[in-house]
Specification:
The complex is a heterodimer. Chain A is built from five helices and five strands; from the N terminus they run E-H-E-H-H-E-H-E-H-E. The chains are: A alpha/beta, B alpha/beta.
Amino acid sequence: MKNVLVMSQSSPFDELNTRDALDMALIFAAVDQNISWLFSGPAVLALKHNQSTPQLGVKDFFKNIKTLEIYEVENIYVCEKSLLDYNLSKSQLIIDSTSLNYTEQQQLIGQQDFVVNL
Amino acid sequence: MARFVLSLHTPPSDHDSTQRIIKFANACLAQGHTIDAIFLYQNGIYHASAHFELASDELQIPTQWQQLADKNVNLMLCITAAEKRGLNTSQTGVFTVAGLAEFAMLASDADKWIQFK
């Protein structure tokens, strides 16, 4: 089994990046690998509550993020500094996650077999 | 000798990442390593377009891929990413239409996954 980390660093509405990352996380879980997903920078906004996709005219992929745990994508990490930058607290996020400082993020990356930036 | 999978995430207009992945792949093969797959994902899927019209002094992208295909490198593209971007998936040249799951299984068995973007 491989440790695979998906890193998201772009806003949820920047291209299809967040959706491509979501697909990648789900598929590696489906083939029984140990998948983790780290959100940093504007990517933390993908976890913010009360996002309204009908108004934006995009597919509601936030509901898929909410159900990640069911598909065994359970290791969700957020950058502590990015939460501060966007004035978010853990209670405003749509899923359970672990916030990491820079040192902890380095350690997380160090534990991986594969890291992919999407 | 290591087993590699490579993924390409940028479109053909990014000549830098295109040349890096092709040179890396050729260097891998030259040193006796194995490439289990090169996978086109995100905007990388446009490399499988059948509609290149390139002047002779341009970087000849389809020719470069053809040379890798001639070395029996498994060239794949992500069907979901391609369909979302309007690529004609019935005409993808040297690239085989594949699912993300096929890539994930190949990657899980490989020693190294290198991402180019």
